Amino acid sequence: MKILVPLDCASHGQAVVQFCSSMPNVLDSIIILTHVAPLPGSVDRGGVERAEHYVSEIARPLRAAGAHVLYMLRRGDPATEIVALARMLEADLIVMLARRKQRHGDRQLGGVIEAVVLHAEQPVVTINDVVSAGTALPGRDERTAA
After folding, report:
1. Which phi and psi (to 5°) does residue 133 adopt?
2. Whole-model pTM?
3. Containing structural domain, residue 26
4. Interatomic CA distance for residues 86 and 88, integer angstroms
5. Within-domain flag for 79
6. Could you give the number of structural domains in the chain?
């Protein structure tokens, strides 16, 4: 299974680690972490390095759990790039972080998630970016929850 996980570098990636680690076939999965720097605007070298560091930090515990993890950095409209990347990589699932405390107008999920849900061919799972230690996620044996 190929799982695409877009990250915005402002969310708490621990939720992604816990969710993906709880999936039954994580050892047979390829988890593709990505960050899309929005246009217009330039991304300085420092911004690229911060994004690379953030994504590699999220990848580390997933790799330690035995998952095959790749990461990609892209530029463009985040929703468009996520949908295109999911199609290009033939992803089976998209997992996105939704910030519970942040609301965009009347939309709870935000524009990027809403656009991805509407346009992606793959199922999209949204998870909260706040997962406390000791919380067992669905499908995860409570003895292994940390």
Report:
1. -60, 140
2. 0.77
3. 2-132
4. 6
5. yes
6. 1
Angle at 109 (CA atoms; ends 115, 13), nearest 5 degrees: 100
Tokens of 63: 């790799």
pLDDT by residue for the chain (146 residues), tens only, comes to: 899 999 887 666 778 778 888 887 777 889 999 988 877 665 666 777 888 888 888 888 888 888 899 989 898 999 999 999 999 999 999 999 886 555 545 445 578 999 999 999 999 998 876 554 444 444 433 333 33
Q: Residue 138 domain-assigned?
A: no
- The residue among 124, 106, 128, 105 whose CA lies nearest residue 115 is 124
Which of 13, 94, 99, 95 is closest to 57 using CA atoms?
Answer: 13
User: What is the DSSP track for 82-98?
Assistant: HHHHHHHHT-SEEEEEE
- CA distance linking residue 29 with residue 141, whole number of Å: 19
